[in-house]
């Protein structure tokens, strides 16, 4: 296998693993956050405005860890620096 | 496939590039400034207001109230900065429904620029509120050992602000693009609607976080009393809530 194929295979596999494992933690965390917020809402319906606002902010923050993983895998797939470097090297060698 | 609107270049002369991010940013700025200038030209007192004046007043009073709820005592001092951040991010999230228009915030350059604005504004507001000495002393809270951690948190929260907004806006467009190749008809519409919702939530979060950082910098000793992902140790409002019986 030449280096470009190796880089492609590694990038694709690692991109999938990154998003897969990176979303597991935030998914569990968001579930817990929503469950706790629902409990709080059931106990104190008067404070629903504050609870909902805090819940949304918290969810977006938990979600951002998953988003970081997604950004990393998107960079691996569509803007991979190693792929570009290897492609340039192969192109230079072919000349 | 284009990851960001940076890659669409309309015009280039040497190192000077005019890419889609710059063009769309200026279009948005023109719409926001021109629209509000148009409405503000015919401002009136009294009971009969024009429809658009009502919209402006709802926006301004809503923003003022939200800023005050975070813990900033004088919202009028900060609404110019925080309100602009919110309006720009929200408008660019809403602009994705226009075909062919990519949100400027789905480019990392724009979000880094916005985050750097927050990074610069926090010390400025902090020094303006409590003087240079008082602001610098807030880095030594609660003890001097925390100085490096406070500095790290200053940098990391700027990075987090930029990447969070970029990732959310970019992923919305990217997911719709990928889904268009798999299930062309209905599902991308649903995801676009979801993207609009997350865009608004991100705009809210971006400005609220900036407000929380400013509130923490302008009031030492007391708690920021708001959501924050990089709380100084010992000041975690969420985990401190007692469990009710």
Question: What would you note in describing this structure?
Answer:
The complex is a heterodimer of chains A (95) and B (245). Chain A has 95 residues and is mainly α. Chain A has one domain: F1F0 ATP synthase subunit C (F1FO ATP Synthase, Up-down Bundle). Helices cover 91% and strands 0% of the residues of chain A. In chain B, strand 1 and strand 2 form a beta hairpin. In chain B, strands 1-2 form a two-stranded antiparallel sheet. Chain B starts with 8 loop residues before the first strand and ends in a 27-residue tail after the last helix. The radius of gyration of chain B is 20 Å and the shape is globular. Chain B has one domain. Chain B is mainly α. Chain B has 6 helices and 2 strands. Chains A and B meet through helix 2 of A and helix 5 and helix 6 of B.
Helix and strand layout, with pairings?
The complex is a heterodimer of chains A (95) and B (245).
Chain A: H1 3-43, H2 48-78, H3 81-94
Helix pairs in contact in A: 1-2, 1-3
Chain B: E1 9-13, E2 16-19, H1 20-41, H2 51-70, H3 75-94, H4 108-137, H5 147-182, H6 187-218
Antiparallel strand pairs in B: 1-2
Helix pairs in contact in B: 1-3, 2-3, 3-6, 4-5, 4-6, 5-6
Using the 3D structure, state the CATH architecture of chain A. Answer: Up-down Bundle
Q: Percentage of helical residues of chain A?
A: over 70%
For the termini of chain B, the CA-CA separation is 54 Å
Our measurement of the CA-to-CA distance between the termini of chain A, rounded to an integer number of angstroms, reads 21 Å
CATH topology of chain A: F1FO ATP Synthase
């Amino acid at each position: 296998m030449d280096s470009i194929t190796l880089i492609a295979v590694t990038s694709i596999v690692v991109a999938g693993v990154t998003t897969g494992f990176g979303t597991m933690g935030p998914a569990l965390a968001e579930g817990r956050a929503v469950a706790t917020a629902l409990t709080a809402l059931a106990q104190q319906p008067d404070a629903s405005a504050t609870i909902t606002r805090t819940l949304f902010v918290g969810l977006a923050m938990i979600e951002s860890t998953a988003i970081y993983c997604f950004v990393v895998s998107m960079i691996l797939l569509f803007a991979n620096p190693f792929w570009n470097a290897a492609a340039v090297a192969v192109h230079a060698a072919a000349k | 496939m284009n990851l960001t609107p940076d890659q669409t270049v309309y015009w280039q002369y040497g190192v000077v590039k005019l890419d889609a991010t710059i063009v769309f940013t200026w279009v948005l700025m023109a719409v926001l400034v021109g629209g509000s200038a148009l409405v503000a030209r015919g401002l009136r007192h009294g009971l009969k207001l024009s429809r658009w004046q009502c919209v402006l007043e709802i926006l301004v009073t809503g923003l003022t109230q939200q800023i005050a709820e975070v813990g900033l005592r004088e919202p009028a001092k900060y609404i110019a900065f925080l309100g602009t951040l919110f309006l720009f991010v929200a408008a660019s999230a809403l602009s994705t429904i226009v075909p062919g228009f990519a949100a400027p915030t789905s480019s990392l350059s724009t979000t880094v620029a916005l985050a750097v604005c927050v990074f610069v504004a926090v010390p400025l507001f902090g020094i303006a509120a409590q003087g240079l000495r008082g602001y610098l002393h807030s880095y030594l809270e609660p003890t001097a050992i925390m100085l490096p951690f406070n500095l790290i948190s200053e940098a990391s929260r700027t990075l987090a602000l930029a990447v969070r907004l970029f990732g959310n806006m970019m992923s919305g467009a990217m997911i719709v693009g990928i889904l268009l190749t798999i299930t062309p008809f209905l599902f991308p519409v649903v995801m676009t609607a979801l993207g609009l919702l997350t865009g608004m939530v991100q705009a809210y979060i971006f400005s609220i976080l900036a407000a929380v950082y400013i509130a923490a910098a302008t009031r030492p000793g007391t708690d920021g009393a708001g959501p924050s992902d990089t709380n100084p140790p010992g000041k975690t409002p969420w985990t401190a809530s007692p469990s009710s019986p």
